[in-house]
């Protein structure tokens, strides 16, 4: 067992490299620097150094070898071969050529696999023979070089016939690597094992015993070699005396020396039986196959041969047949002369118990392991190994307090024991006491450090404690620097790498963290701890599939209890992630069922219960999740700080800020373990970020920034905090600053699809349409099968006006969700002064900063009153202890219809504007005008069938119309037609309007062409073209323009035409012209302005011109997805060239004032539900109307003169006007919709009423909340 332990310790030191003597020679200095940087795995600096050396000496072998090695390591074999050729061309061929040739050979995949297999073979002789064969297969007859030669010769030396070759090879390496202590140790050991060279080996081991790197192993082997030598000859006594000078209390070695001296005085040297001599030589060579038959034969001849019995005991010990070994050694010690074997017997018993205890601990039988250690302790209470082993077991079980006490007890009895010292340092480090660990390390003398095992890298341990202390202070830069120093001192330590990787994560450097961990796996792909730390990093990043795959590479037999527990954690997280994704797709019942079946995985472990509880919160069952965690806390009369923090985490995810903050304030200042400290820091950070986002959503950017800034100060590069700050800038309209903050996040995490979509969103708000497009495309390429990514990308596409592509993405997302449902199974903020806040004084924001930056580590929840403070208040502010990033929880959209996924809802939004439908309506309009003249009752039954054609839609419109004005009274005959006395009768008309329409929603383009109702007295071609689009520079600004020819529907005369009693016909007026408008709407307020110019043309009607101007402003008093409330001020002005508001021949019969001014206060309230939506609009204001006098018969001068030139009088009125409109729509089913509208307009002595109803049938199913605001279907002839 001791030999086995020694071999492990030696293997742990294999990475040591030769040092270089100090020299002032420039080339030697460059050689030293080059190898230094290569040892530090910094190829860039190494390459720079080697190039400098080649500039001084173009054929310098070390430089050629160094560059060739770098090319090989960077997978450029052709370039490496070029440098090998240059080395081989030198005369004589340097050793570096042989080394590079071997490096290239070993780097081949097939040879790398052979080398791995050779290293995995164990200690038994037959396995060593196999390992040697594999090494020779790699070397292909070439002489082994470098570090691989070192391990090869060491393995060869333990084979039956390899000792001499091994010694010769190690002697060569000693000459080539004079400063390599491991080569010297291997050589000394093999010399000591060989009886012919044993004295030389003992002398070499004596020298190495004081070496800082291998002294512990050399000292142990030195003693073994003296025991193997036996009672010394007179010329060998000095070897024993030298050992006893260092170890004066070793009674066994002193007894052997005394025995040898006594035998020398007796005149006859002690002689061992020749057969036994041969057997013991075989034992020394590790040739158990030769030794066993010799010992067996001797015992057959002489069953009580003390040396044969003792030798057989040693043989069985090496075969790890400890019971047999003990039996033989017991027999040997009971015979005369057997006292020399007592030490071996005690050793076998002691280490057998220790070995059995370690096996039991690995198998999870902790109680048995402790019992075996206790037996070992009773067997040899003076030996510290058992107590140290027990403390090690306790540390593995995270019983740090007990382990610490155990190590301190050993040190009290054995001051300076290296294993106890190093164990205590590790326990202090793991238990969150880096300050105590640092003090202990600094108190260890150089002599004590020299006795530590080579695996104990004391300088790395010290730097690690410095890093942990910096972490506790929240100084991430200092922590990173310390961990880098630790990694330089112990580059192969996976836990040091993991500590530094965690710092990179907190600083937002995800790629650097992953590269650091993966770097070790490239060189040690099967090393359990390297795989374990890679798994832990994946867990930190919530990459559970990757974590599962990496952990699965660790053989089950090599997994620790912690690794097995992590496997359960991973399984639970995968299950909860599936449930959360299921809920995101709208399948909440299935998600809850999945979580219910996952409960068995928690095994009532609080950390796992917290994971499950948080998942319940995220799938929309927050109270259930909170109840789970509350039970954990309540069932424990004295809940631990860690349990309270777990509960606080779930509260935060449920947005219970007050309760979470109360727990965090309670925990603040209490002693925390290392994990507890990290968890607390994470929660404080998440607490601030979540509340900052909530304040931003309330449009309180000043308070949001004050809430976030202490977190940003601690983690200036963390994606979560910087992303929150970027969103604040985007909300303030500063898209440029938002982009500046977001760009480094993308650079650090270019393959994060969600970050790419965030970038696209900011780019879209900043009207960088090209970037929004490319970032969305990158996200889709990264995760083409993720419904959440597809849905979010579709929203960006929709914002870009690419509704067809958006709909395609959403259909793909829905198809994936459907398939997944079917198979779902359980399976840097800028530098800032203390009062700096970039949002103070912006429109709608506070004029002063708040107290949230100085509110302590745990600020008050956002529903508590937030005070504003003056800048002087910051003078006494202290920085908060905030550090470490925290991945934010995903939130499930809270909608009334939980069965609908976001993709379904988004697709519905697009389809509402694109899906085909048929609709039948009925509308009635009437006014209080004079019968036969201005009176109109308009009944229409509009029908429309719309079909999508690619990205466009086309529609057919058929609109039956019946108009009625009543009969012209006898007193009104003079004001109708040509003023004859012939009764005109009832004025009515009926017709059917026809039209086809085209729309391109992406371009905001509409067009239609048709004919006014066929059957009317007059009908004519009507239609128009319009466009309405946002400006590319800022989508809040829009412009619109249209050109049209539309019927004027004020009266029967203007719309259909009239005929008097004598058959005179006139009317059928159309407005021909254009309109332009500009608007701005930022969802907080809006402004607009418009202008139009039209020529009004009719039949036997004087031509007219209309000019109209208008503008307005409105504010959103309430604006969310379900309801809006706006209040505004509007103004308009209109003028007509002629007053044609009359019904005699030549007049158009439409409202046409020469001066019209209106100033109103409009208000609109709209609300949407799952199946019903409505809106109410009203306006009240002042109106001024002035109409000039006019001829009775304009354009008919003869008729006008013959009637005595009659004229209508001019009028001018000012008064109050108001209007009211209400519209609603109800979803009868996924395809049938019933809607309606009523309206009232009043202006002085004029009043108009209108109402309509319609039934719409869609060709595709729509679901989800009704659109807001409602857009009722109207006749194409409605105003």
From TrEMBL:
What pathway, per the record?
Glycan metabolism; bacterial cellulose biosynthesis
**What is the species of this protein?**
Pseudomonas marginalis (Pseudomonas panacis)
Q: Keywords in UniProt for this one? A: Cellulose biosynthesis, Repeat, Signal, TPR repeat
GO aspect biological process, one term? UDP-alpha-D-glucose metabolic process
Where do the TPR repeats lie? Answer: 27-60, 460-493, 719-752
PROSITE patterns (alphabetical): TPR
What does the organism's lineage look like at the top?
Bacteria, Pseudomonadati, Pseudomonadota, Gammaproteobacteria, Pseudomonadales
As given in the record, the signal peptide range reads 1-21
- Residue span, Cellulose synthase operon C C-terminal domain: 934-1260
What does this protein do, in the record's words?
Answer: Required for maximal bacterial cellulose synthesis.
| GO CC annotation terms, alphabetical | outer membrane
- Name of the protein: Tetratricopeptide repeat protein
List the Pfam families hit by this protein, alphabetically: BCSC_C, TPR_16, TPR_19, TPR_8
Keyword Transit peptide in annotation: no
Q: InterPro entries annotated for this entry?
A: BCSC_C (IPR008410), Cell_synth_C (IPR003921), TPR-like_helical_dom_sf (IPR011990), TPR_rpt (IPR019734), Ycf3/AcsC/BcsC/TPR_MFPF (IPR051685)
